[in-house]
Amino acid sequence: MSATPNAAGESSSADGGSVVGEPVGSAPLMVSVSGCRGIVGESLTPVTIARYAGAIAEHLRRKAGDGPAPVVLARDGRASGAMVGDVVSGALQAAGCRVIDLGVATTPTAGVMVGHHHAAGAVVVTASHNPQQWNGLKAISAGACAPPRDDAEEIGRLFREGGTRWASHEAMGSVEADDTAAHVHVARVLDAVERIAPLDAIRGQSFRVVVDSVNGSGSRGARLLLEALGCQPTFIHDSSSGVFPHAPEPLAENLGELAAQTAAQGAAVGFAQDPDADRLALVDSRGRYIGEEYTLALSAMSYLDALPAARRDGVKLATNLSTSRMIEDVAEQYGATVRRTAVGEANLVEWMAPNGSPLGGEGNGGVIWPEVVPIRDSLSAMALVLALMARTGATLADLVDDLPRYAIVKRKVDFDGGMLDRLEPALTSAFAGSAVDTTDGVRLDLTGAGGGKAWLHVRASNTEPIVRLIAEAPSAERAESLLDEAAAALT
After folding, report:
1. Which of 275, 347, 228, 237 is CA-nearest to residue 74?
2. Residues 15 and 157 in one domain
3. On the chain, which terminus has fewer CB atoms closer than 10 Å, C or N?
């Protein structure tokens, strides 16, 4: 798992994870299964953008067999998005692609429109939750989902090796705009949620909802969806200007205004999206930050509770190794099972599709409902949570309080090239007797070792030059203690 430098100035991990480089000063360029991210004007220059967009175009052309299928383009609204989007559009046209430009649109919306247009795939200009100065490119395959690991690695190789075939003058591509994407996406969510709870039952509740879209791409679709569901929405930070009013990751420390507004208005729920709207965090009517980990558990409960009892047994849900065990508790209640995969949306979807998994997601608030789109989708999560509240008549606070209580604690430490080599021996020695999973970094299940349903996961990030340490236990003190022990073992 060691990292080695290449001629382009990046360094790649042997397991196909992050590619970390310092092409300009100390600014990292991240190329991984999650796409390409960098700091605009430093590591993410127009040359880098065009080169990576060309690599995606070449990959999509090979997968499509040189066919004429179009490529969808969307951006998450952040301030640099127009510039990056223009460079991407030009590179795609220079590679001979017909570009369907959605403008500012969410990542899941781009996935929906790949299917709608029978496209070869999509490119989304986004750095997800990364700070304002970052931007990046994310590929979507013809299956309307994140490309599987082998495909993502091929895009990385094409980027490093400059393998794009640029078109001749006569074969240059074209670009056309499509402003219908949010409507198409919302229509698909409404059709799916109708089978969870009748739309009139949701509309009859007239839920008051507050939404913080962090001036990203999610506000338009959220407004269309919530109004269609008969809600009374209040939006804050919904300009799509891309100028973030606070740190964009939907964490408690960044959502004070949402919490205050939700409580002041007596709203049923507060929703927080990230810039490309593939994640959703929750706030209850008292202004209590529920967080992201509960989004998947409640969505799974909504889906399973709506199934006839005879169809619940054996349903296969999916999540990653870093997500709260609440989803196992929910699944057990309904006779369903849970499969855990390596972190990364592509890893989840790659398992879900052939195994008929109807719902999955990650503890970062990303719910994947393939019936809508096989991509993490905040709109799907909103609809599932509201449907559960309408079906049960319970408040969000009551639903959360009825779930088993755990504390999940997350830390980040700066990436140390030798740290990855130390992970497994150091952690297995420090936590002897625990069950070990090395699918993605090192995950230790301490339940059978006196841990009281506790676990620890340490892995290199795919999107930032850091190592993530995550622990979950029945108490915050126990989770913090596990992280302290892990950090000490790695030093």
Report:
1. 275
2. yes
3. C
Q: Domain boundary at 140, 155, 179, which?
A: 179
Residue 66: its pLDDT value, please?
A: 64
Q: Which of 23-37, 117-131, 168-182, 271-285 has the lowest mean pLDDT?
A: 23-37
Are 364 and 413 part of one and the same domain? no
Residue 202 predicted with pLDDT over 50: yes
CATH number at residue 448: 3.30.310.50
Provide the CA 253 distance to its chain's centre, in angstroms: 20
Cβ-contact 73, 81 below 8 angstroms: no
Give the Cα separation of 242 and 134 in Å (integer).
12
Q: Sheet containing 455-460: which strands, arranged edge to edge?
A: 407-414, 466-473, 455-460, 442-445, 435-437
Cα–Cα dist 374/345, whole Å: 9
Residues 353-367, mean pLDDT to the nearest whole number: 96
List, for residues 27-82, the tens digit of each pLDDT value.
789 898 889 999 999 999 999 999 999 999 999 999 988 666 899 999 998 999 99
Positive or negative, the CA dihedral 218, 223, 229, 232 is: positive
Claim to verify: residue 248 and residue 273 sit in the same structural domain: yes
The per-residue pLDDT for range 93-131, each reduced to its tens digit, is 999 999 999 999 999 999 999 999 999 999 999 999 889
Instruction: For residue 206, count CB atoms less than 10 angstroms from its CB and return exposed for 0-12, middle for 13-18, buried for 19 or more.
Output: exposed
- End-of-domain residue from the set 179, 214, 237: 179
Same domain membership, residue 198 and residue 67: no
How many structural domains is the chain composed of?
A: 3
Which of 368, 363, 321 shows the shortest CA–CA distance to 342? 321
Residue 180 has a CB neighbour count (10 Å cut-off) of: 12
Type of residue at 394 = A
Cβ–Cβ under 8 Å, residues 167 and 95: yes
Of the candidates 144, 188, 185, 190, the residue with the CA atom closest to the CA atom of residue 345: 144
Q: Which two tokens stand for residue 124?
A: 């989304």
Does the pLDDT value for residue 14 go beyond 80? no
Q: Which of 316, 314, 215 is nearest to 272 (CA)?
A: 215
CA distance linking residue 386 with residue 211, whole number of Å: 13
Give yes or no: residues 87 and 156 share one domain.
yes
Residues 477, 370 share a domain? no
Q: For residues 95 and 135, what is the distance between their CA atoms, to the nearest angstrom?
A: 22
The pLDDT tens digits of the residues spanning 137-151 come to: 999 999 999 999 899
Q: Do 251 and 191 contact (CB within 8 A), yes or no?
A: no
